[in-house]
## 1
Amino acid sequence: VQLQASGGGLVPAGGSLRLSCAVSGSSININNIGWYRQVPGKQRELIASISKGGTTSYADSVKGRFTISRDNAKNTVYLQMNNLKPEDTSIYYCNDLARALVAGASWGQGTQVTVSS
C-alpha cells in the first residue's frame, strides 16, 4: 500500500486548506486511515482517523475545526482544515493506522502546512 499526501501550503490564520491522501495498492474501504502531523524535533501525532466502517476520530487540538472524509471511488482520504491556527503549522502525513505502529514504517514525503499569524 502506498499513500501520498498533498494539498499543503501557506495560509493566514483563520484560513482553510484541504489535504488529500491518495492511496494505491489497496482499497481505502478495507483500511483504517489516519492523518498525522509532525513538527521537527517533536513526535509525530495522530490528529484524525477514519475507520473502514466510516467512524471518525479527532485529537482534541483539531476537534471542531478539521474534518476527515473519504471518496471510495477515488481511493482518496481528505482532511478539511478550517479556522487554521499558527500552531497547526507542521508537516502532515497520512498512513494506514496499523502500518503506522510498525517501527521503520514508510511515511512518504508528507505535505507542509504553514499558517501565518
Note: The first strand starts at residue 2 and ends at 6.
## 2
Amino acid sequence: VQLQASGGGLVQTGGSLRLSCVASGSIFSILVMGWYRQAPGKQRELVAAITSGGTTNYADSVKGRSTISRDNAKNTAYLQMNSLKPEDTAVYYCYARNNRAQMNYWGQGTQVTVSS
C-alpha cells in the first residue's frame, strides 16, 4: 500500500484546510486510516483515525474542529480542519494500518502552517 497525502498549505488563524490521502491497492476498505502530525521539536502525535467501519477518534486538541472521513470508492481519506490555530502548525502524515496483516503504512508528510 502506498499513501499519497496532499492538501497542506499556509492559512491564517481561524482558517480551514482539507487534507487528502489516496491509497494504492485494493484493500483500502479494510484499512484503518489516520493522520498524525509532528511539530518541530515535538513527537509525532495522532490527530485522528477512522476504522473500516467508520468509527472515528480524535486527539483532544482537535476535537470539535476536525473531521476525518473516508471514501472507499475513491481509496481516499480526508481530514477537514477548521478554526485552525498556530499550534496546529506541523507536518501532517497519512497513516494506514492493515490489522489483518499487522502492517502499518506511512505517506509522505504535508506541511500545514497556521499564521497568527
Note: The radius of gyration is 13 Å.
